[in-house]
Write a structure and sequence with these properties.
two-stranded antiparallel sheet; 13 helices; about 45% helix; alpha/beta; five-stranded parallel sheet; Rossmann fold; about 325 residues; single chain
Length: about 325
């Protein structure tokens, strides 16, 4: 079957409002992480930063049909997942700058954003940390018969972790409504997945645990959403877990400032030539569903909103020292 034809047909099944919502999510992620990259590089943000640039279609497509009380758990590269799940843009910006008023009080920073009210169980600096969390969340949904699902985002590096293997196996054994989204951007930190992943297909390896699994183009929003809709239907109706391996280029290094000595200039140029936002716009415009002017207006509005949030975060106060020992432990 011709994938481009399939995607165009699928795009035409979406309403104008749905298409606009999908694009706004992607451009918010792009604008947000471009600003974050700029301020990290300028030394205005503490700690490390890992941007989601180039993978916008995955977060937007995977979260497009999730309900507010469906769960997701993220990775160290989690800004895109947070935005796609509906976390407040300004609260995220304050959090990453380590300022009071941030989603986690300015204490979590870039790699530990969580917003339980949005079903966002947290970004995670532990490689392979999200799959076990999601299996627990999915089991909770199954026991309570809520019809809700839990989605774990993980990278190709995390796909090698024992925590991921155990989580996938348990998800199948218990038949929980979990979806494992493996974002294969070709590198686990500084090591190419072509070297570190023994199986040619991460999806095929996941299928060996006994669940449906497929490998798709993570640059194409429509392919991502279509695959997720099938997985969501399966999960919500008692069909158990699914793994989706989404292939996508990594625009930048492992972290902001990574010199990337392990990639050639030609490889870097080739990666940046594949743009999920351009792919989305071209498909939608060619199908006559939206026009280029509409996208241009959204771009301007979004970049202005992100810039305003960043400037507010720069001027905001740091948390009061009295807050240092709060939120360290929870009393049950």
């Amino acid at each position: 079957m011709n994938i481009s034809t399939l995607d165009k047909s699928f795009a035409m099944q979406m309403s104008r409002d749905e298409l606009l919502r999908a694009y706004r999510t992607m451009i918010e992620i792009r604008a947000f992480d471009e600003r974050i990259e700029k301020d990290f590089a300028a030394g205005k943000i503490p700690g490390f930063g890992h941007v989601y640039l180039g993978a916008e279609a995955i977060a937007a497509g995977a979260c497009h049909d999730l309900a507010a009380d469906d769960y997701i758990a993220s990775t160290h590269r989690g800004h895109g997942h947070c935005i796609a799940k509906g976390c407040d843009l300004e609260g995220m910006m304050l959090e990453i700058f380590g300022k009071a008023g941030g989603i986690c009080g300015g204490k979590g920073g870039s790699m530990h954003i969580a917003d339980f009210d949005k079903g966002m169980l947290g970004a995670n600096a532990i490689v392979g940390g999200s799959p076990p969390i999601v299996v627990g969340a999915a089991l909770n949904q199954k026991i309570r018969k809520t019809g809700k699902v839990a989605v774990a985002f993980a990278g190709d590096g995390a796909s090698n972790q024992g925590t991921t293997f155990e989580a996938m196996n348990m998800a199948v054994v218990l038949q929980v409504p979990a979806i494992f989204v493996i974002e294969n951007n070709g590198f686990g930190e500084h090591t190419a997945s072509s070297y570190s992943v023994g199986a040619e297909s991460i999806a095929a390896r996941a299928a060996a645990f006994g669940m449906p699994a497929e490998q798709i183009d993570g640059v194409d929003f429509f392919a991502v959403r279509e695959s997720m809709l099938k997985a969501l239907e399966r999960a919500r109706t008692g069909g158990g877990p699914t793994t989706i391996e989404m292939k996508v280029p990594r625009y930048l290094g492992h972290y902001i400032g990574d010199p990337q000595a392990y990639r050639t200039p030609a490889e870097l140029k080739a990666a940046r030539a594949i743009d999920p936002l351009v792919t989305f716009r071209e498909k939608v415009v060619s199908a006559g569903l939206l026009d280029a002017e509409t996208f241009a207006v959204i771009d301007l509005e979004t970049y202005a909103r992100v810039e305003a949030a960043a400037e507010k975060a720069l001027e905001a106060p740091y948390p009061d020292p009295s807050a240092l020992e709060r939120d360290v432990y929870i009393s049950y």
